[in-house]
Amino acid sequence: MIVQELHKIQRECGYLPAERLKKLSEQIRQPLHRLHEVASYFPHFHLQPPAFAEVKVCCDMACHLSGGDRVRKHLEGVAEQIGGQKVNVKRTSCLGRCDGPPAVSINDHVYWNMSDEELETIVRSAAAQQPLVEQTIGTLAPHWQIDPYNGQGHYEAIRRWADAWNADANPDRDIKRMQLGDAILKTLKEGNLRGMGGAGRPTHEKWTNARKAREDVSYVVCNGDESEPGTFKDRDLMAFAPHLLLEGILVAGLVSGAKQGYIFIRHEYQEQIAAMQIEIDLARSRGLCGENILGTGISFPVEVFVSPGGYICGEESALLEAMEDRRAEPREKPPLLELDGLFGKPTIVNNVETLCWVPAFLAKGGGWYRDQGTHGATGLRFVSISGHVAKPGVYEVPFGQTVRELIFDLAGGMSGGRKLKAIATSGPSGGFLPAVLDLTQVSPRFADRLKKRGIVSADAVRLDILDLTLDWDLFQRDCLLGAGFVVYGDDADMLVEALNCVEFYRNESCGKCVPCRVGTQKMVEMIQDLLDGKRHDDLATLHDLAKVMSNASICSLGKIAADPLVSALRYFPQDLTKHAKGL
Question: Is the pLDDT of residue 402 over 60?
Answer without folding.
Answer: yes
